[in-house]
């Protein structure tokens, strides 16, 4: 049918941009130097921090997900919603918040000072891992929670009627579930951490804590060594592609979605010890997630009324970028998901954007533009493109299943009535897709608002998005301004998500 | 007259053969579960292509036509409405699937709704109606569609027995008034007896008939007897 044509066109366009960028990188790398010792160090650091981040996130997620799965309490749904928040929280905001808690001048160091202990340090490997755990513990928890809730309530009832204790329930029901879901969750977190840029940029750095993504950026900006950047980009590409393929093959489910609505009443978990354990775990994780955000609020609020003009200008730039990313991203997602109903593998094309890290695509586009014009003139266009591409897999993850459902429910009815293509889109697809489209647009907008990636590569000193501006203020040690700008950024990201999501839901009938 | 001429329907391992002439009146399509009753209706309506043979209406071959160009209206087991559209819009789709209705068509919609006892429900969404009212919305749409064949793939199965019979009686009435041929899949031999003079038997890979419903059910062939049980 005609409805696959736009999707195929979009897929082809994505393939051209991504593969074009890759070819530009590879072509350039062919003439580049080999890997130096610093590059091997970066490669090693990238893998080590990704392994540590995924294992710590995954292991901590087990007690958190278990507590959420077996306890019904006031605020449970708020906590689960909160677990989704880091996904749309700008990295630079989280970094500032974590620094305010765990840094030299942070809450913990201050408390240690009172009892005469030296302050803790956040920069380096453990800081990078800490930030990654902050982002990925919630993700891993949501994936595991889905696993828990996929265990039928009848099984727990049967266990209770047989008089099984918590230990036996764990062995008979929970351990087998974890064995099948935990590796997938670990792999997803591992893959996401491989492409870490903004975290490494702000908490890592130096010869001992540089990721490959960061090394690409540094080869670019400090040495302007395009050949080396290209070699590193090829390394990054290979590494992420392998990890992405493995984790996709392993895990078919995602961390957000339905089925987290209620806790199962668990007879085995009613001992005082287990209740205490769950309370401690849930309080701990809430504190870990909320405290950094609270610190942003506390430290940012005083400065928010006298922010420098440059910050407000960058807000305007960012909003423009967001607007175009959302328009392009949503048009692409809509076309792709329509076509993906018939041609399944089209959904996979979006993963190209993830498998090839933003820095690689940025490098490639830079190399393509460089011979003809100053890349900084295209900074915002490239940022828009990279942001739309980056959000595409997440948008498709929610839109494609909905699209499939609509087709399977209403395709026959509309065929028997003889609806035209236009009427089908206007009367059926659009009204029924509005809710998920709003959610997807919210994700795209928030991710775009908070992204600090390709723009750092391209932007000239006088251009900046808000996240880049926050980063520059941090670099200039203007911490009060940075905190205030970060607060603004956090509010903007959440507001953008809320507005789109809300807009999609508003009097949407199902 | 609906003619299935050596029609063969294939879906994976499953095959169904049909070779029959279906005249005017009401016809039950009966047979064991999984025998292919819905498949037969799907093929007649144009949702499943024939592997071989053909389907004709009054001597004109229709087996290559898309569903909406065949002279029939169909009600499925579920999803007979778009839940986000109003009752009037859902009925109006039967007149113009692109929903650009002129004044006269809008008039037809209201009159169909008032005939089915749904005046005043025009702007409601289907989900806010009771099961019986939803059935009437479906009926109203069939009414405005004015097709020569009406296919029912158990659209009222979720209703209680009394309401289901009421709905089926209404459809039968409608078919009789407009002179349409009615084909309805049925799981319940009592429904078949009550509504349909004729029955088509779908069993063991073949659709046969039409038979006189009473005669068929009073003395069922062995496979049907197994399905119906000793009481019938």
Structural class of chain A: mainly alpha
Q: Enumerate the spans of chain A where pLDDT stays under 50 for 5 or more consecutive residues.
A: 253-259
Class inferred from helices and paired strands of chain B = alpha/beta
Number of H/I helices of chain B? 8
**CA-based gyration radius of chain B:** 18 Å
Task: Explain the overall architecture.
The complex is a heterodimer of chains A (510) and B (232). Chain A starts with a helix and ends in a 5-residue tail after the last helix. Chain A has 2 domains: 1-30 and 306-510, MetI-like fold (Orthogonal Bundle), CATH 1.10.3720.10; 32-296, Orthogonal Bundle (MetI-like fold). Chain A contains 21 helices and no strands. Residues 253-259 of chain A have low confidence and may be disordered. Chain A is 77% helix and 0% strand. With 510 residues, chain A is mainly alpha-helical. In chain A, helix 13 packs parallel to helix 17 (379-417). The relative contact order of chain A is 0.14. Chain B is 35% helix and 25% strand. Chain B has 232 residues and is α/β, with parallel strands linked by helices. Chain B starts with a strand and ends with a helix. A 10-stranded mixed beta sheet of chain B has the order 5-4-1-2-10-9-3-8-7-6, sandwiched between helices. In chain B, helix 5 (161-178) links the parallel strand 7 and strand 8 (181-185). Chain B has helices at residues 37-45, 87-92, 103-115, 131-145, 161-178, 189-195, 213-218, 222-228; strands spanning 2-11, 14-22, 26-30, 52-57, 60-61, 72-75, 149-152, 181-185, 198-203, 206-212. In chain B, 44% of the residues are buried. The mean pLDDT of chain B is 88. Chain B has 2 domains: 20-46 and 65-71 and 148-232, 3-Layer(aba) Sandwich (Rossmann fold); 80-146. The chains are: A mainly alpha (510), B alpha/beta (232). The interface between A and B is medium-sized, with 20 and 23 residues.
